[in-house]
Amino acid sequence: MQFLALYAPYFLLLSCILQNYHSIKAQVIDNFLNCNGTVNYTSGSVYEHRLNLTLNSLVANASLTGFYMTNVGDTNDTVYGLVQCRGDLSKNDCNTCANTAATKIRQLCLSQKEASIGYVNCSLQYSNRRFFSTFDSFPRLNLHNYKTAPDPVLYNRQLGNLVKNLSSKAASDPSRFAIGFTSYTDFIDIYGMAQCTQDLAENSCLICLQEIAFYIPQDGTVGVTLLSRSCNLRYEIYSFSVSPSRNQTPPAALPPSPLLLEPTPATTSTTTGSNTTKTGDARNKISSGTIIVIVIPAVVALIVIIAVTTCSCYLLRKKSQSATHHDDVLEDGNDTMDDALVIGLSTLKVATSDFSDAYKLGEGGFGPVYKGKLPDGREIAVKRLSSNSGQGLQELKTEVVLVAKLLHRNLVRLLGFCLEDEEKLLVYEYLSNGSLDKILFDQGRRFGLEWERRFKIIVGIAKGLLYLHEDSQLRIIHRDLKASNILLDEDMNPKISDFGLAKLFCGSQTHGNTNRISGTFGYMAPEYAKNGNFSTKSDAYSFGILVLEIITGRKNSSFRDFSNLQSYAWQHWANGTALDMLDSSVGDHQWRRFEVLKCIHIGLLCVQEAPTDRPTMSEVVMMLNSYTLTSQVPSLPAFFVRQGSSAHSQQLGACRESSAASEVSQSVNDVTITELDPR
Prior knowledge:
Elements: H1 2-6, H2 8-28, E1 31-35, H3 46-65, E2 67-72, E3 79-85, H4 91-108, E4 115-119, E5 122-127, E6 141-144, H5 152-172, E7 177-183, E8 189-196, H6 202-212, E9 224-227, E10 231-236, E11 267-272, E12 275-280, H7 288-330, E13 331-332, E14 335-336, H8 345-351, E15 360-364, E16 367-373, E17 379-384, H9 393-405, E18 414-418, E19 425-429, H10 436-440, H11 451-471, E20 475-477, E21 486-488, E22 494-496, E23 503-505, E24 511-513, H12 526-531, E25 533-535, H13 536-552, H14 565-575, H15 593-606, H16 617-624, H17 647-658, E26 662-668, E27 671-676
Antiparallel strand pairs: 1-4, 2-3, 3-5, 4-5, 6-9, 7-8, 8-10, 9-10, 11-12, 13-14, 15-16, 16-17, 17-19, 18-19, 20-23, 21-22, 24-25, 26-27
Helix pairs in contact: 2-7, 3-4, 5-6, 7-9, 11-13, 11-16, 13-15, 14-17
């Protein structure tokens, strides 16, 4: 201890050197660039000519209001462009930044029909498709200050309040820009900035800023810049505003804080864009001879203790890494989730016999799932996310925050999670019958799925989706509804699982857009698979595919003659042979003809091309609980593949459905049950 105390000043000096090195290093990469190489144009083409006009127009108009969007052309070669500068940037600086962005994007994204580039002071993007009024919140550039506050809990609380306030102000301001500050200590303030592109609606801007805020580290990092295509967030412990406005007045002189490891009391840092300049009082300058006298002994001492410091830092980082990850997941704005959700790694190793293959239930897209038993006797299913899986910390955070707040008999229940020693584990209630696909598509087990159970599963899934879309506190789009994500308990009750790709909506919003299309082909709605547009109606499409799978007992990807499941179902419906679709394994068990027809009808309504034509989940549940078929006639399904011999019957089918014959088969408790034949 005396040895460490003796060389404490050198530790401080070393820390300062490393901190300044990282700060400078972070500012070398001051922009993001994204070139879409999947869509190209040829040199000298109409598109290239219009692109040049678009970029020239963006640069010329950028400095007028700090924001400009345009489109050039009215054919397939239309170019859409947008440029935006920081809200506090001068006209001259805005023009300079926009000109740099336009020049670089042409040089670095040669021949690409879609590209985007972003700097700290401005961003520019163009595309051959209309992207206005849709947002992409994924951070393309993430700059860290690398310094941490001495009291991360207090810092994160104050920062969270600042980010929320700035996000609300930016969203409600016509300029979609806001700056401000809040107190951290008596001597230190936190300065922040939030901005969206001005084409976004207020609600879209707010959601974009809320989503990008998920990427703010929870370890007390004192400065972060997050840049995405549609919105930006930045905060520091110094005023970085180009021109102070909105009554923001930075402190005249911030007292030095040794706990924050500032280099020297006489030196302050001022950042403008990506350029860092340092100023100091000439009276405090140190002569070269003095520097040599101080630095050489320090360097010799540092060489001796460098191994000790390196090992100490490494061990401390390893020790705090797990706690930091836990904080990332537990913190949801200012609401802290119950610590009881945290389950120790040692407990889960004992429960699963150290993740033994004998306890393995299956392998999902994100990693294996193991069965286990907690010390209190509860049976659990542990999802172990593999290090190379597509589900990272953000997806895990989404799943924990969502599922822990959702309580419904048709949603899987989250019991806890664990983030230790590089492990990412989610712990769920164990459901003895596993996933629906393991039974539905298994020739040996599917005979246990008589029609009554299948209908019960369809109704349960619909009620679970209705809860997510309309009845929970949050509006949630699942985005990955499929047979393998439906789990069955001992009574064959269905429970929707796997919320890693789910999206939250606030207020009355029902749709969004993303450039990161994730999910399972075959279950994706056309508007999502093609353009990244997702909504409650895209979940309804996935539900329709799932219903048709449950009825037929066949995977949507297993069809060859009719190319896909919805085409197969439509042709049977149009030809009046819909009941022939029913899985033969149902056999001669008692099943209600009208229930089967009703489910086929609902399935076809859900897989229609236009989202507006599909029913909401509340309408689906109402139809499932009704004793008659809906009078609504389904149109051709999305991704329909025409077959020559059936084209005529397809046209006749739509006409026949509207005048379907009905026959009364029985009455129960004076309730008339009507069966409608689609012919």
